[in-house]
Amino acid sequence: MDELHDSQAQATPVWAIFSDLMAALVGIFVLITVWVIGIQLELSQSLQQEKARRQVEEQRRIALEDALRDPLSSGRITFHNGRIGISGSVLFALNSDVLQPQGEKLLSSLVEPLRNYLSEHDELLMVSGFTDDLAIQKGNSRYQDNWGLSAQRALTVTRTLIAQGMPADRIFAAAFGDNQPVVPNQSEASRAQNRRVEITTVPRQSNQAENNE
Predict the structure, then answer these.
(1) What strand order describes the sheet that includes 171-175?
(2) Which keywords has UniProt assigned to this entry (predicted)?
């Protein structure tokens, strides 16, 4: 009888340990489940935010495309991924930053739709100048390289738009030289495509800072 009692006394701690182990495993499982649910909720919120961002960008693109319907329909400009493209040959002669009459007329046609767009959207216009990969011709003492030429062309377009009625505080210039070609510089035709000016809408810095806070 005493031996049976001693055997039961020795077995009790084993079951107690097993019970504690199971409780610990259940606790770990609950923690993992809560963690997984939290990750899923976070991913779901991120997806919703990304979806909302893309919807806003699409609405902006549609609004800008609608504002530029007339010049787009005439084929005088291109519009791709929110970028208004103007051929450099329309605006400038080769290696020149002097605006041609047809280029000035084209820019004049863009002022009203762009100004109307800006009146409804708290954004800025970035005017970017691009060149092909050919070096500046000898005898052109105004520019050392394509950076200088692309910068001056962007400034010329920016100042012309301002003179034609674009608010000066809503537009700025940028230069990219022969970087970011739209097609490889393999022929005169492809280089002509890369000699261009683009106008892009960008958010104000103050709005970006507020969104990051």
Answers:
(1) 78-80, 83-87, 196-203, 123-130, 171-175
(2) Membrane, Transmembrane, Transmembrane helix
Bridge partner list, 201: 125
91-118 residue pLDDT tens: 999 888 999 999 999 999 999 999 988 9
- Judge contact between 197 and 129, C-beta under 8 A: yes
CATH number for position 167 = 3.30.1330.60
* One domain, residues 55 and 85: no
Q: Which amino acid is at 138?
A: K
- Residue ranges making up the domain that contains 147: 75-212
Residues in the chain: 213
The stretches of the chain forming alpha helices (DSSP H) are 2-67, 69-73, 88-91, 101-120, 146-163, 188-194, 205-212
Closest by Cα among 97, 185, 85 to 133: 185
133-140 long-range contacts, CB within 8 A, separation 24+: 133/178, 133/181, 133/185, 133/191, 133/194, 134/185, 134/191, 136/95, 137/95, 140/95
**Same structural domain, 151 and 85:** yes
Q: 174 Cβ partners below 8 Å, 6+ apart?
A: 126, 127, 128, 129, 154
Residue tagged 């230069």 (tokens): 175
